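Q: My labmate handed me this sequence with no annotations at all. I'd like to see what the chain might look like in three dimensions before we decide whether it's worth expressing. Could you predict it?
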Amino acid sequence: MTGELFSSVFLLLLVLDPLGNMPFVLSLLRDVPKERRARIILRECAIAVLVLIAFLLVGDWLLLAMRLTNPALEIAGGLILFLIALRMVFPPARNELAEHEMAGEPFIVPLAIPMIAGPSALATVLLASRQSGQMWVWVGAIILACAVNAAFLLASGWFARLFGKAGMEALERLMGLILTTMAVQMLISGISIAFHLS
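A: Here is what I predict for the chain of 198 residues:
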């Protein structure tokens, strides 16, 4: 059970990508008073936790209603994670993040959704709700992963000063390489089950 919790937290952290989101958070909150930034980050992370847990609890019902099989979910999950990993290893220009900048404090959008509880995280917990036999392990994993994610985002200024832009990009690429391996393993597993391969 501890091993499943650890692996679930690790997978969610790779999908949440706090290192890659740090520049976005710094840019989004640059005009917000420093004393308010921590409260905003914690509030948005709490909202994201509620959204992810809601998807986890109703995900199995949604997937059954759509008549999706486990191999299909495994292959789809592998493809989704692989595309996310490619964006981490070969990140697009950050110019599009400027489109989300807004006056005043962000509320729900774009921090809680889609930055934290985005399509990739929602898809991951939907897959987990069907595949995992221990739902509460994933509830704990969501809470722990989002807590670690919040800690990273709260320390984004410190990380930016410590590693610099080049160091942050190198760390994100390393996380992307790890996620690529996990995505390929999901694809292999899904294809093996679907085609009854040994």
